[in-house]
Design goal:
Elements: H1 33-52, H2 57-62, H3 66-69, H4 74-77, H5 83-99, H6 104-130, H7 142-148, H8 165-183, H9 189-209, H10 212-218, H11 223-237, H12 242-263, H13 277-295, H14 306-335, H15 340-382
Helix pairs in contact: 1-5, 1-14, 5-8, 5-11, 5-13, 6-14, 6-15, 9-10, 9-11, 9-12, 11-12, 11-13, 12-13, 14-15
Length: about 375
């Protein structure tokens, strides 16, 4: 999930050379609170999928398959996995916004200080809980747990402490591509458009050639969602930018293709649930439409400050909700005897409370300190 900063205020466009497209004259826009709210909705979609939209370890937590626990809702919950694609669209939007006019060292410090503190604590917390003898879920080895602290466990072939961290690996690759191609030389509209066009074409070629290194780097399956978010940020800067709208349209067309290709199957009783291709396309379309509505200002009325709290809770909630959710579900449902629906709601509540604690006592303290340390280190290196 999005694993990005609570949406910052839109920075004033940086001065551009005469050869570049003219910057828009619109003044800096206020904070996009609706984007914070959409981020939490996407996280709750993923949680619904993990608790009631799939089989696996969560079936042990419930004592039976979630299909039995939620006979009417499990098919709807199965669409919750598409919250990840919505996260990626939001990430493309926010990373382009936060990286515009920012030097590479500042971009790196911002990303690292945002992602790492809660992630480190989540790794330690899940490892510790799974190591408790009464918890039936298997903890990874101490060596693998230490490697997980680097966020590089997936390319290194190490067991993951957090099941959701595969999305962070996709985010890291996106950050690297954007930093090298846009942030390092300096963000301009022309450069961002070129980045989107080249990445789209290169990802298609990677899919066609089936070359592992290209596929790993260019992420054909997820690239359209990041690129679509970047295009929507360009739309946010200038609604009349026809090229930006074209980027969004192409990204939606390719993105829905990959979502259907990866998540659709013919009706089969051996599968947990059946997602229709129409349903998959509808969810992807709604995700793009929601970010579009935010980008063009249709949600400016939703300027409630509590939405910034929702956005702040999203990342820590996303990190801890799956594995610690299993333990909570088993405790509340199988041991305390709560009915399925009450357990589902209570588990969401417990995970949100834990996310609040992580935000309050970890992120608000460690994130600024880590950012200052990284900025200071960069300054010393230049000296």
């Amino acid at each position: 999930m999005t694993v990005t900063d609570p949406t910052p205020a839109l920075p004033a466009p940086a001065p551009q050379p005469a050869a570049a497209a003219p910057a828009r004259t619109k003044r800096a826009a206020p904070r996009l609170y609706a984007l914070d709210g959409l981020r939490l909705i996407a996280a709750l979609m993923v949680a619904a999928y993990h608790y009631g939209g799939r089989d696996g370890e969560v079936s042990h937590a419930w004592g039976t398959s979630p299909r039995t626990q939620f006979p009417s809702l499990h098919g709807w919950f199965a669409y919750g996995c598409l919250g990840v694609q919505i996260f990626f669209v939001i990430s493309g939007f926010v990373i382009c916004m936060s990286g515009w006019g920012r030097p590479l060292r500042s971009f790196f410090a911002s990303r690292a200080s945002r992602l790492l503190p809660s992630y480190w604590v989540a790794i330690v917390l899940v490892t510790a809980v799974f190591a408790v003898p009464v918890v039936v879920y298997k903890a990874v080895s101490p060596s693998d747990a230490l490697v997980n602290l680097t966020m590089l466990q997936q390319p290194l072939g190490v067991d993951r402490v957090l099941g959701v961290c595969w999305t962070l690996w996709a985010e890291l690759r996106f950050y690297a591509l954007f930093a090298l191609c846009v942030v390092l030389p300096g963000a301009t509209r022309h450069r961002v458009v070129l980045f989107c066009a080249v990445w789209t074409l290169a990802a298609a070629l990677a899919e066609a050639t089936d070359e592992p290194l290209l596929t790993l780097t260019l992420m054909p399956e997820y690239a359209p969602f990041f690129i679509g978010g970047i295009g929507l940020y360009l739309v946010h800067r200038d609604r009349r930018d026809a090229t930006a709208w074209g980027i969004v349209a192409v990204s939606w067309l390719i993105g829905q293709h990959y979502a259907v290709d990866r998540l659709w199957h013919a009706p089969n009783p051996d599968f947990f649930s059946y997602r229709t291709s129409f349903g998959i396309i509808a969810v992807i379309t709604l995700g793009f439409a929601a970010v579009t509505a935010i980008a063009i200002g249709w949600t400016a009325w939703a300027n409630w400050r509590w939405l910034s709290v929702a956005g702040a809770l999203t990342y820590p909630f996303y990190l801890v909700h799956e594995h610690l959710g299993w333990v909570t579900i088993e405790t509340l449902h199988r041991h305390a005897g709560l009915p399925s629906w009450a357990t589902f709601v209570a588990t969401i509540g417990v995970m949100l409370m834990l996310a609040w604690l992580l935000n309050r006592y970890v992120e608000k303290r460690a994130t600024p300190a880590l950012r200052r340390a990284l900025d200071r280190s960069a300054g010393n290196a230049r000296a």
